[in-house]
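hey can u check if this looks right to u? its 453 residues, i copy pasted from the old doc so theres a chance i mangled smth
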Amino acid sequence: MQTSLVIPLVLMALAAVFLLVDAPHAPAAHSSPAVVAAIPTEPFPWNLAVNPATNRIYVVHKQVPRVVTVIDGASSSVIGTVALPQRDAFGVAVNPATNRIYVALRSEEEVVVIDGAANTVITTVPVPDPFERMAVNPATNRIYLTGSQVTVIDGATNTVMTSLPLDSEDVAVNPATNRIYVAGAQVTVIDGATHDVVDTIEGVGGFVAVNPATNRIYAGAAGGVALIDGATSDIMDTISLPQSAHHIAVNPTTNRVYVASTEFGSGRLFVIDAATNTLVDTLSVDAPWSVAVNPDTDLVYVTEPSIPSNVAVIGDASGDADGDGAADVVDVCPLDPDCDGDSSLPPDYAACQGPCPGGFWRDGMEFALGTSHAGRCADTASSDDEFDDKWPPDFDDNRTVNVLDFSRWKDHFPAASTSDFKYARRFDLDASGAINVADFGAWKAYFNTTCSP
């Protein structure tokens, strides 16, 4: 490789590390954490990863479909999918320094490499027995994949460098120290430069995460989460949780730890203040499986693989300047007032049905209907060619409201409640929990109209 190309790549990797290990600040942005958005996805979203450099979130789906869903973090909306050669996409990881996304296909025993700029598959890397957790060291451009052994991939050549004989369930990397933490029945510490095992931590395992800013490691333990000193590999403390957990993520910017748990049908996301090692919040989330953090935006993303499938967005719910029910952190129209003044979600449709400035429907209403608040109407005039609808009365998503839209609506009319088999929130235009003549009146106001982006 030419020297002129090596220097920029090294600088990019170093910049990524500096972003990750920036000193934590007071977690003011988490004064009131809550689910601030629910992003509809293809079925069975499983694992996900965040690229903080581009503010993109990548979601893989268990079994079907054979795609990676790409989410725009700025608008909290799906902006595309990347087709995969096979199904069984279990693991996903991102290198923010190179904008490469890595997806583990379990049944095919290979890792798919995706160009994040073009959203296209570059190549595939054969690997032995991949599992579902992956991690990337952006400073060394190495990818670590769990399974019956830990596979190390060179991101520069897209080839397997070595395999370590460690049965593993999860893996995390500290790019500041080049230590790799492998969680199985115990946590094994690996030197990323030599691939040698340098320590073993007994009594912890299952899942693991690292805060590179504090050099603290968090791993599963009996009754909660163990806090480990990265300098000594000593267990410093154990934070008790009311139910068992299976995945964890750390925000190095705010020094908060997020733990996903589904036990006996009770989905929870536990929030730990790592400065005090205390459980500070418990959020109700529908069957959470995987959790990831964007430290630049302070938003947390959680997969909800139940039906309907979503990616839940966790953020600061204390800021809602316009009172429309959509938190400012995900509100496209943050200063559009809720004209009925009740600050409810959704607003009372009868009292206020006008659009936001620029032609948007009110964000709180779109949140309730499941349409995207990131655009006024469909990107194209072709019917049903986009993943999400943008204009609520345009049910076939072709920029025109006509009898074809009415035909779709009437298939769901009447529905007395949300438990009615005909009910679908997409057709409940007043978000009342029923589909009736009031919804027809709301739709009729747009009959024979068109819109343009």
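The first helix runs from residue 3 to 20.
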